[in-house]
Design brief:
7 helices; 52% helix; two-stranded antiparallel sheet; mainly alpha
C-alpha cells in the first residue's frame, strides 16, 4: 500500500471497530470533488483559486468548526491524482495561505486557524455556507 495513504488508513483504524466503515465512507465522501455548483459559487464570489484549493475549502466547510487533519486536506487537494503524486503537508500550508489571502481580499466572514500538530479549523457565522453566500441568501 502506498505510503501516502498510510496516515488516512491509520485515522480510519483508530476509530472503534464498529464505526470504521462509516468513518471511511464519510472520509471518501469528504474527499470526492465538490459538486460543480460549489466551484461555480467560488468563482461567482470572485475567489481566484485553483480547483485543488476550492476542494480544501469544501473539506473545511463540510467540517465547519471542527478540526480537519492535514492528511484529510492533502487527500482533498490530491484526490484526482495517483497516491504516489500526493503532496506533502507543507503544500497544504501554502494552499491555506492562498485561501486566507483570497478570503480576506473579497471579505468573506471566514477564519481558518492552524491547530498545531493537529490540523486546521474553519469557522464562520451561524448558517453561513459558500453556496448560500454566492446566491445572496446569507449576508457577509
Amino acid at each position: 500500500m502506498s505510503s501516502a495513504i498510510e496516515p488516512i488508513r491509520a485515522e480510519v483504524m483508530a476509530q472503534p471497530e464498529g464505526e470504521r466503515l462509516d468513518y471511511a465512507l464519510a472520509l471518501l465522501e469528504l474527499y470526492l470533488a465538490p459538486a460543480p455548483a460549489f466551484y461555480t459559487a467560488a468563482a461567482d464570489l470572485g475567489l481566484d483559486l485553483r480547483a485543488s484549493d476550492v476542494r480544501v475549502i469544501y473539506a473545511l466547510e463540510r467540517e465547519l468548526g471542527k478540526c480537519v487533519t492535514a492528511e484529510r486536506l492533502i487527500a482533498a487537494r490530491c484526490i484526482d491524482r495517483p497516491f504516489d503524486e500526493w503532496e506533502t503537508p507543507d503544500r497544504v500550508s501554502r494552499s491555506l495561505t492562498r485561501i486566507k489571502r483570497e478570503i480576506a481580499r473579497i471579505g468573506l466572514p471566514l477564519q481558518i486557524e492552524c491547530l498545531r500538530e493537529v490540523g486546521y479549523r474553519m469557522t464562520a457565522p451561524a448558517g453561513w455556507s459558500l453556496l448560500r453566500q454566492a446566491t445572496g441568501r446569507v449576508a457577509a
